[in-house]
Amino acid sequence: MRALLVDRSAPAGLRLGEAPDPEPAPHQALVRVTATSLNYGEVTAVVRNAPDGAVPGWDAAGVVERAAADGSGPAAGTPVVTLGFEGAWAEYRAVDTSYIGTLPGNADFGAVSTIPVAAGSALRALHRLGPILGRRVLVTGATGGVGRYAVQLARLGGAHVVASTGDPGAHGDALRALGAHEVVDRPSSLGDPVHGVLDMVGGPTLVEAYGRLAEGGTLVAVGHVTGEPETFPFGALSGDLGHDRSVVTFFLPSCGGLAPDFTWLAGQVASGRLDPGISWRGGWQKAQEAVALLLGRRLHGKAVLDLGPVF
């Protein structure tokens, strides 16, 4: 099959080439890929660290070519959205049926391909906060793929949403259009404290956000794009400064039951209730362009590759 392969001698570390067809395990379906969305973590960690010849890719949408042998998951011919640890950037991928959501008939494959890592992380991270109706929720790194979905889902859940971005002047209107009630440049600029935080940034931003938690509040650490350590000042974790505040770590693949979440999220995207925030879209022969934009932090939203004539 044709695939995007890791090749450190090529621009952006990728080239189009041939790879062996995947052989699904009994609990996996074989999916013919139609579109995939790129994540910052893929182009930084996976592409840079995977061996030459590897086929990266976490998120993909397509059609079930062959159902799982054990009878789980959707039937052949079903349009689906999928999550895996590798193999999305190819004509075919083998996927655990627990990571496969089904699509409504009107779904745009490119739009729903943005769901698994970005929308799945936002939804499950919000679940970690507990009930958010009528509560103040801060989303840091709100212009990224996960952040944009988190703003929208928090608003749908009834929260008072505060979005944090490094440039409110440039991105404030767009974030308010997604559902943010307030837009700030950093957590320390907040007025009133918040009941929950979804942090996509890590480092000093996480520490600042923790300092704005109300009593009993929770911060969910979702992303760590800065690469900087989280260094808390002495006494920051003392109970007399805010009783029972907590920091919760998060890793999407450790969450169970993702298939129903992906199915529900796909319905929301297809209906227009959730905006996938696609800021770049093109054929897979332009993958190097998309990767370069992501590495340069020049994309605010999602990059989508459509399976094109090159295959």
From TrEMBL:
Coiled coil: none annotated. Signal peptide: none annotated. Residues 9-305 form the Enoyl reductase (ER) domain. CDD domains: MDR4. Pfam families: ADH_N (PF08240), ADH_zinc_N (PF00107). InterPro entries: ADH-like_C (IPR013149), ADH-like_N (IPR013154), ER (IPR020843), GroES-like_sf (IPR011032), NAD(P)-bd_dom_sf (IPR036291), Zn-ADH-like_protein (IPR051397). It comes from the Bacteria. PANTHER family: ACRYLYL-COA REDUCTASE ACUI-RELATED (PTHR43677:SF1), SHORT-CHAIN DEHYDROGENASE/REDUCTASE (PTHR43677). This is Zinc-binding dehydrogenase. It comes from Microbispora maris.
